[in-house]
Amino acid sequence: MIVIDDLKDKCVLVTGASSGIGAAVSRALAAQGARLALHWHANAAGARAVAADVEAAGRRPAVLLQGDLGARGTARRLVEEAMRSLQGLDILVNCAGALVSRRPVLEADDAFVDAVFDLNARAVLGTCQAAAVPMKTRGGGSIINVGSIAGLDGGGPGAGIYGASKAWVHNLSRHLAREFAADHIRVNTVAPGVVQTPFHHATPPERMEAMRRSVHLGRIGTTDDCVGAFLFLASQQLSGYITGQIIHVNGGQVMP
Q: Which residue numbers are catalytic?
């Protein structure tokens, strides 16, 4: 295992940590000695399993924080609870997000659009706003938002509103990188392509195969394929002069 010295003892909040990319990133940060607050919404068993893995690695027990990030006010509350529990906040990783459901744009009513944007966009804004204050008092920090290949290409069938919400995250991250730079808070985005996570459990096999064929490396990605980008962006030592960037982890499916 590669050791990234400056991640040891850093206070980290990971949203959407109970499964998928969020779980993988949480385990990787724990292995580097970070102190973790793990957010979950409905998957209590998954959250407990990740917390157990963190403790088994010989690190401090993780703090578990439950909340529906699609509900207004939850984002700020989670950051405040994480800060109190960890006694500080150095790194925020915004992994929580969902397609909600596949729905053609002409069938996307106001309630559906609100549900997608409340979770994938407004919650990201809320956690970033809340995290900037404690990070500023600690002399800086790193915010890593999760975008998507859908934010670049508009999304696949039924994912147009989701794709729009992720494009929103991409541009928000660029703006926050400028606005927070004076306080030494770096803001970057990891934009995964097709990754085998619970996100795709309802994706038809023929659609998954079509996406696999469009990936130049010839396979669907894994959560472990994504971890390195997060560790890199979390570390001041490795990426201290990098902000406002999007790292695309998609096997060459899209090359912007």
A: 162
